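User: Good morning. I'm curious how adenosine-5'-triphosphate would be positioned relative to this chain. Could you predict the structure with it bound?
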Amino acid sequence: MRTSQMFIPTLREDPGEAEIISHRLMLRAGMIRKLAAGMYTYLPLGLRVLRKIENIIREELNKAGAQELLMPILAPAELWKETDRWNQYGKELFRCQDRHERDFCLGPTHEEVITDLFRREVRSYRQLPVILYQIQTKFRDEIRPRFGLMRGREFIMKDAYSFDKNEADALVSYQKMYDAYDRIFKKTGLQFRAVEADTGLIGGTSSHEFMVLANTGEELIVYDPEESYAANVERAEVSPPKELSKEPLKPLEKVKTPGAKTVEQVCALLHTSPHSLVKTLLYKTEGQEVIAVLIRGDHQANEIKIKRSLGLHELTLAEPDMVQALTAAPVGFSGPIGLQKVKILADHAVHALHNFIVGGNEADTHFINVNCERDFQIDLVADLRQAQEGDASPMSGGPLQTARGIEVGHVFMLGEKYSKKMEATYLDSNGQEHWAVMGCYGIGVGRAAAAAIEQNHDEKGIMWPIPIAPFHVHLLPVTPSVEVGTVVESLYTELDKLGIEVLLDDRDERAGVKFNDADLIGAPFQVVVGDKGLAKNTIDIKARRTGEVVKLPPSEVTKWIIDKLADRKE
Ligand code: ATP
Ligand code: MG
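Assistant: Good morning! Here's the predicted structure, ligand included:
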């Protein structure tokens, strides 16, 4: 392609709206433009990268025996009502109506649609297993769309679904997809890690997220530096403390703590550490019931674990007026002592504590020397907190470390969740009817492109890994002579014939402008042709990543590039 014929509106200045580097560079390199919050136009250069990622995905999924199809984006509400997700999905679901005022949604994911296809078309065990996938635009009305393609409201996803006869077979499909994901992300040149992820109400270990490691990642993972264990903090199990406190119980005491609402304020006032304090969090459940959750002051509550411990779908912190009505105190002074009609859940670490501090259910008041069972009753002791750095690893027992990650892919065992609700069955060899066992598998295509930039850039711009670079070679004539023009044209034709993707900067611009744009756009190799070099019969080839320059006679350039591309080494 020639720059003069390609729409690449690069920007010199940093766009103000972009908070993270990948977003800034995608805008500056002329890859994307924003239409509205979380909605982007993929410009020609950006689209080339997305297509490359999609093709790597296709290649590997096809190899794994999955088949591509394409479902409608628009789905009738009836299907979503069958699984109750029409209600559960809440505001993230984009809804609309047709001219007959029938409800529809724009698919945020396609379990309902594919399960409907399955139940209509698949009858026999002989047709199983089947793995189907599509690469398609998804819609989610995210609360906070941000970071460009990382978290859009309209974005491209590869979603796949497997159907099997039973759990054992389903695990085989799951493993196939897991392995395909491993190959896909390796091929794209990303540094990633598969981590155990939350399985929602299903439980079990059959959910993994593929995380690209990057400081700007929204996810926090814990990992065992000694073992292969890694998990999303949402998911990571925390073992109960090995022993309970042996401290003798002291008499309960009520103390005045004027204005001390936060853990820090209470600790400062009472000269103690967050370790000796217990937070009482009041939550509303879907049945409008209120529960109290006790978490040690230096720990974070994990709402997913809390939900799972009670089999709940919805959990929201109680509003201040509700807290006031329940505890007769403003937020910050809630405690379990004397709390009426509220189920009390305690994290293991709280249960192991003696003589701790809790809110007094009275403004500006706390209790000290509080003890479970003696001073209040607990309804359920469970693992309810987030794992954190230094917690014991479930594998080696050693301290866990933390890292930030970007979730680019997710493989998930669904079991019979959808097939039961939607009556998706097959007949076995004896004519017996069974529910199909399902798995689902997603990859964020745009997010993967953005994550690649987070990992591969410098202050001048992007440094694309070869497999997903929009072009392999950026050809830069830097002096406007006839000789340079002739050499450049013949190189361009030669490389193009060999299937090497070349962007020829044929603009009438200064060398400096061309170099800056080439560094910004980030093709792995820049081939610089100028009069000075040609006078010595050389052309400069710069590797974008290392900055190394080699000088070669024009006749050797093509072979050098072919060898480098074959090695996948810049
Ligand atoms: P997140 O926790 O980041 O919202 P999710 O758990 O909702 O992700 P899935 O439903 O598993 O995501 O979707 C599969 C994949 O689609 C994710 O792994 C991610 O790469 C991508 N994805 C999800 N939401 C978005 C979004 N809003 N913008 C871009 N990509 C997304
Ligand atoms: Mg999400």
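The two ends are 21 Å apart (CA to CA). Residues 84 and 421 are 9 Å apart (CA to CA).
Let me know if you'd like a different ligand tried.
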